[in-house]
């Protein structure tokens, strides 16, 4: 699935809106905002798709992967 910037923006906007309507406990509000932002960013990053085209090889003796990586992130 490709990265969805507009969904990330919507989640960030909602997090800030919720912060504006807080109960006055600044520390709890900041904790909640940070949690919402972290959740939005985590979701955004995990929706990325790695498209591998080629280039990497594996050393049969050590099983280490050798560069270069030819591909992209969407």
Task: Please name the defining characteristics of this protein.
74 residues; alpha+beta; two-stranded antiparallel sheet; two-stranded antiparallel ribbon; elongated
Overview of the molecule:
Helix 1 runs antiparallel to helix 2. The chain has one domain (5-73). The protein contains 2 helices and 4 strands; from the N terminus they run H-H-E-E-E-E. It has helices at residues 5-20, 26-46; strands spanning 50-54, 57-58, 65-66, 70-73. Strands 1-4 form a two-stranded antiparallel sheet. A two-stranded antiparallel sheet has the order 2-3. The protein is elongated, with a radius of gyration of 20 Å. By secondary structure, the protein is an alpha+beta fold. A hairpin with a 6-residue loop joins strand 2 (57-58) and strand 3 (65-66).
Brief digest:
This protein is 50% helix and 18% strand. With 74 residues, the chain is of the alpha+beta class.
